[in-house]
Design brief:
208 residues; mainly alpha; 9 helices
Length: 208
């Protein structure tokens, strides 16, 4: 279904993209810092599911709407920035470094998943990235263009989940050690809030 030579090149490019720190990885680090390893991994799963949604949209041609309707793009961009600012405020206001049972405080596992998914879904740059990146490795002469998009998108999602899940796991374990100090626990909440706020500013300040 896919061109093997193009697919091999895609695997190399996708690996470089996945291991390069970006907004999603920073978000997952912040979530792991607030909620521990489980929250970090769940946030990575949420991001991965959102990536699958973007892949299906790209395969169906829906993502092209953002290239032709700038207003829709900007509405989604500001919604994403607002949501990240909301998460930043919650992190800054969190004064409890440890839960009652000794686990890191922060969002529950289900909430961590949905926050990861929503944050990625409300980032129109991910949509535009799929439009620009994936077609480079699609061979129209083989036919089944939508199927090729799906294969590439699923591959990128699985690779990203592996890397991001590992990052979330490690950041959570490190934060669990650091949170034994109440002062350090508070500092981690501030760090998470700063990351969320920085991502919001970055999304709002760079239209394209």
């Amino acid at each position: 279904m896919v061109d093997t030579s193009l697919y091999a090149a895609f695997l190399v490019a996708a690996f470089v993209l996945c291991v390069t720190p970006g907004p999603d990885m920073m978000f997952i680090v912040a979530m792991g810092g607030r909620g521990g390893s489980a929250a970090g991994v769940r946030a990575a799963c949420g991001v991965a599911c959102a990536m699958l949604v973007h892949t299906v949209a790209a395969a169906l041609g829906l993502s092209a709407l953002f290239a032709t309707l700038p207003l829709l793009y900007h509405l989604l961009r500001w919604a994403g920035a607002g949501y990240l600012l909301y998460l930043a405020v919650k992190a800054f206001r969190d004064r409890s470094p440890l839960a009652v049972d000794g686990r890191p405080a922060g969002p529950g596992l289900r909430r961590a998943f949905w926050q990861g998914a929503v944050t990625n879904l409300l980032n129109p740059k991910v949509i535009l990235f799929d439009i620009a990146f994936l077609p480079q490795f699609v061979n129209p002469h083989l036919g089944h263009v939508a199927g090729q998009f799906l294969v590439l998108g699923v591959t990128l999602t699985v690779m990203g989940l592996t890397v991001d899940g590992t990052v979330g796991l490690l950041s959570g374990r490190l934060s669990a050690l650091l949170r034994r100090s109440e002062r350090v626990g508070r500092a981690l909440n501030v760090f998470s809030g700063t990351v969320f706020a920085g991502l919001a500013v970055r999304l709002a300040a760079t239209p394209k």
